[in-house]
Amino acid sequence: MLNIPTDLLRTLVAVIDMRSFTKAAQSLGVTQPAVSAQIKRLQYLLGYEVLDKSAPGVSLTPRGEIVVNNARRLLSINDEILHLTSGQMPGQTIRVGIPLDYAGSRIPGTLSRFRQQWPDVSYNVSSAPVDEMLRDLTHGELDLVLALFAEKPTIEARHVWTQELVWVHSDAVKLDAEGPVPLVSYGGDSACQRAAVATLHGAGLDCNFVFTSHSNVSLLAAVAAGFGVMAVPRGRAIRNKLAIWEDAPLPKLPELYCALLVREGGDRSAIEQLADYLKEEIRVDPTSVSAP
């Protein structure tokens, strides 16, 4: 049986009540493209148009009138259930996007500590390639994104700073002067891996991915066992007690730009405070430097 998500119905009702996609987006705390995408998805699920494109402004089709009238009833019941069972309306859910490099890092603990200040806040945290996260942020599907860039980002960010990348290794690792450099890495979507590969190729060196995992524990164990070398921010290497290869026979790694980006529109008070809190927590890296 087909189920219609209540968020799609709530978006439709907001568009009709405010007679504007832009105003509806502002009231819902998302962008106008996100509202348009939700209306399109609702119409796809229903199998027919609910908005009359031939009429000026925002107008409903006859079927759309039926949908909106019943949507109001359904949403009213939904909100009443939440109110009666919890004693209060649900708090804000902040949708956070983090890079693969930060999966398994201090982010979960940081979010938990922030909730002590905002007890009604809950989270929906996901990891994805940076281009995908930025697209979701633009469409209002994410509220806050922590992104890593090889160059200073040109898009507006609430906070930007740099982190120094270093090579880490163990005494057990052996490099073949004539062969590829063995790399331990999070994988292809990792900004640290991309920077390492680009640096090696720029120096005319090849590389071989000898151990790839999304588990931070597994990666640290692989480095300690001598599988290969890994590129990580200096602060993370220090916190995890990894051996930084200061005089490595490898080219020097570049700095990475870290940015915290907040979606436009809606009530951003908790989101902006979370961005500020994350910046202070993450930038305890001793080599992090604020970027103007």
Short account of what is shown:
The protein is α/β, with parallel strands linked by helices and 292 residues long. The protein has 10 helices and 10 strands.
Structure description:
The protein is of the alpha/beta class. 41% of the residues lie in helices and 19% in strands. It has helices at residues 6-18, 21-28, 32-46, 62-86, 107-114, 130-138, 191-202, 216-224, 234-239, 269-282; strands spanning 93-98, 122-127, 144-149, 159-169, 181-185, 207-212, 230-233, 243-244, 255-262, 289-290. The strands form 2 sheets. Strands 1, 2, 3, 4, 7, 8, 9 and 10 form an 8-stranded mixed sheet that branches. The chain has a two-stranded parallel ribbon with strand order 5-6. Strand 1 (93-98), helix 5 (107-114) and strand 2 (122-127) form a beta-alpha-beta unit. Helix 1 (6-18) packs across helix 2 and helix 1 crosses helix 3. The model is unreliable at 285-292 (pLDDT under 50).
Features:
292 residues; alpha/beta; two-stranded parallel ribbon; 10 strands
Q: What layout of secondary structure does this protein have?
A:
Elements: H1 6-18, H2 21-28, H3 32-46, H4 62-86, E1 93-98, H5 107-114, E2 122-127, H6 130-138, E3 144-149, E4 159-169, E5 181-185, H7 191-202, E6 207-212, H8 216-224, E7 230-233, H9 234-239, E8 243-244, E9 255-262, H10 269-282, E10 289-290
Parallel strand pairs: 1-2, 1-3, 5-6
Antiparallel strand pairs: 3-9, 4-7, 4-8, 4-9, 4-10
Helix pairs in contact: 1-2, 1-3, 1-4, 2-3, 5-10
